């Protein structure tokens, strides 16, 4: 792997990222809660199914680098978005609710996907991870652990984007029906513990009021912090599965998840200046967008079509669990942590 071999693919991912960033900067899609990462994969898929096949031979090395090394670097730098002080600001209520929702959503999605809908394991695990933690970013972070093909990653991202967007519009309606049963603060925790993407959480909260938006976003970021230990646990579980009756796979530790935790710890102390942290977060956004662009470039529409409607059915059922089951769990949490 040389700079010469990397350059065409990295530049291509960079161009797609620049277009996606421009659309986001112009506010296109903001009302729909479409994030820069979503734009990146959509534009990447458009280019990937038109222009990219003609230049794949010279671009493939750089594109693979973008969705591999750049992705892992982006996940590590994501830790600069988080501090442990955020946990303290919302207390055990949000932590416990997040933990219960993460574990229950993941297990329910896995059971439904693999046992009932008979979806392949990789797609099911990615859909379950995206719904239970933080949407597209979680799916991308889980991809190296699950070792899934690009089109399966895209299918999983599609489910979290679609149903996360639906949640963004429906939760403000839920608020008008349910505010007599639940406090404003707890409703924010409800949004943060059940809606898929960070951008969707923020939009749903702001569509009601700023108080709900604040508790929703902090609760969501605690969910994001759970990504690293979750990936370590998932890696351990997959590694412990027998590849045959007598042979066990080697345990693969996703070191980028470990570094994610280390960076979050560093960011919790006044070690790195605010200006440097700001630019590291900006760099992180670019790296994650380039990874999403590269994923889109290598995703074939035909492969997504072959996945059929089952992943969407899974996403719909999980959405009902998140919105209805999640509300009941938040009601219980409100009673327990008064």
Description of the molecule:
This protein is 79% helix and 0% strand. With 338 residues, it is mostly helical. It has one domain (3-336). The radius of gyration is 20 Å and the shape is globular.
Could you give a quick summary of the protein structure above?
With 338 residues, this protein is mainly α. The protein contains 15 helices and no strands. α3 packs antiparallel against α13 and α7 packs across α15.
Query: Percent of residues in helical segments?
Result: over 70%
Radius of gyration: 20 Å
Structural class: mainly alpha
- Number of discrete domains: 1
| Overall average pLDDT | 86
Can you count the beta strands? 0
The ordered string of helix (H) and strand (E) elements is HHHHHHHHHHHHHHH
C-alpha end-to-end distance: 58 Å
Subcellular location: Cell membrane
Transmembrane segments: 7-28, 34-52, 64-84, 90-112, 124-142, 154-174, 221-239, 251-272, 279-301, 313-337
Protein name: Membrane protein
Keywords: Cell membrane, Membrane, Transmembrane, Transmembrane helix
Give a quick set of tags describing it:
single chain; transmembrane; mainly alpha; 338 residues; transmembrane helix; globular
SSE inventory with pairings:
Elements: H1 3-25, H2 36-48, H3 52-77, H4 85-116, H5 121-132, H6 136-146, H7 150-178, H8 184-194, H9 198-206, H10 210-225, H11 227-240, H12 255-267, H13 274-297, H14 301-307, H15 310-336
Helix pairs in contact: 1-2, 1-3, 1-13, 2-13, 3-6, 3-12, 3-13, 4-5, 4-8, 4-10, 4-15, 5-6, 5-7, 5-15, 6-7, 6-11, 7-9, 7-14, 7-15, 8-10, 8-15, 9-10, 11-12
